[in-house]
Amino acid sequence: EIVLTQSPGTLSLSPGERATLSCRASQSVSSSYLAWYQQKPGQAPRLLIYGASSRATGIPDRFSGSGSGTDFTLTINRLEPEDFAVYYCQQHGSSSLSWTFGQGTKVEIK
Amino acid sequence: QVQLQESGPRLVKPSETLSLTCAVSRYSISSGYYWAWIRQPPGKGLEWIASMYHSGATYNNPSLKSRATISVDTSKNQFSLKLSSVTAADTAVYYCARVAGSGYMDVWGKGTAVTVSS
Fold first, then answer.
1. Which residue, A7, B30, B50, B111, shows the most beta carbons closer than 10 Å to its own?
2. Is the Cβ pair B104, A91 closer than 8 Å?
3. How many CA atoms lie within 13 A of A36 on its CB side?
């Protein structure tokens, strides 16, 4: 089973700053099967990025994803007040037919 | 726009079976995609429970030790989750989601909170 480890656990930033979130896999993950989600309190997760770097419909271009192999990054440029939330990475094992999530990174207002 | 809506009992007794349904609107389940259940214990992260392909093939999280069963009712355009022998550790918000072929979950229900308690 692939384990996804996200860092840092909490990121304290001010509006307008850049957020860099890391997701590291315990073994290589196909970029096609790596996604990022945003979750606000009391809400369901929302898909941000799929295929490691493709933005989902309606997602602003200040959100970008990158990476390959075992290291993936979500970058949020110029944080807006509505971006303060918890972010999860997720992978799908096409051979193991399983899905796993990272433990999440909370982006909080400094 | 595709919509998913979870429903089921909010309170389940320990050792009993938790049963939830996800009603899908504006898309026919039998047309394609995977469909999944995910849960989130209070204050914790997301955990994948089970998925099924529209054709009926199912996939379970091994950490749940075969307690989870996912099934589909195409006549009602809904899919369901049964989780047996529940304990307090199964207390969580349960979400259903549509899953694209590349494994990402592009449409989510709003979630339903289930408490396991006597």
1. B50
2. no
3. 31
Cα separation of A92 and A31, whole Å?
Answer: 10
**Interatomic CA distance for residues A53 and B42, integer angstroms:** 30
| Distance separating alpha carbons of residues A96 and B15, to the nearest angstrom | 30
What three-state secondary structure class fits A8? coil
| Residues A76-110: tens digit of each pLDDT | 999 999 999 999 999 998 777 889 999 999 999 99
Would the CB atoms of B111 and A44 count as touching at under 8 Å?
Answer: yes
**pLDDT tier at B102 (50, 70, 90 boundaries)?**
confident
What whole-number distance in Å separates Cα of residue A50 and Cα of residue A52?
5
Cα angle for residues B112, A50, B81 (degrees, 5° grid)? 30
Q: Least CA distance to A32: which residue of chain B?
A: B102
Q: Where are the beta strands (DSSP E) in chain A?
A: 4-7, 10-13, 19-29, 34-39, 46-50, 54-55, 63-76, 86-93, 98-101, 105-109
Contact yes or no for A25/A72 (Cβ under 8 A): yes
A106 touching chain B per CB within 8 A: no
Nearest to A47 among B47, B48, B104 (CB): B104
